[in-house]
């Protein structure tokens, strides 16, 4: 399934212009990425489904008479005699139904992302941002002055990653202002305004440390990348 597009052509143009303007202030090169999601979380889907199956088996163990009686009423077999094979079959059926039911329910994306623990989302977004930075910005500029602004929509999380020259002079906490400026707009659905605000803040942070030279060359694309 293709990722949805969150921005219009005008929004893309707005962010591109913001990057170009910010890069006029410094030698920094800003890359922006907007992701629909940072991971498929298949392991989380399987974990919840397995837990549902385990709970179904636990319920059968705790109150077996209830489920045995329920099964007898469903098939209306008054003369049914339970054997070990029958009991194991009932357990297998209950576990399988519970597993499949929760697995299918998680295909509904709002529930799927609701069930993903917050720390897992944070870690996956961070890992994806680092991978994107290594591919698109790390050590791709002459002065090692690349910065990635990464926003992941489904997880409601963002990351700012800087190349080594900037990282040695700017503490990670300093990017907090840029993150705050971006998320304030994004929470209200103004994604392009949020990305543009973050770009402006990042440019202002970099400028005192890496002033733009007269012969500065634009080494990385200014356009937003949607993935």
UniProtKB/TrEMBL annotation:
Q: Name one Pfam family in it.
A: TPM_phosphatase
TPM domain: which residues? 137-204
The transmembrane segments are: 45-67, 87-105
Checking InterPro entries in the record gives: TPM_dom
Record keywords, A-Z: Membrane, Transmembrane, Transmembrane helix
Question: Can you tell which superkingdom this protein's organism belongs to?
Answer: Bacteria
What's the protein name? TPM domain-containing protein
Species of the source:
Novosphingobium mangrovi
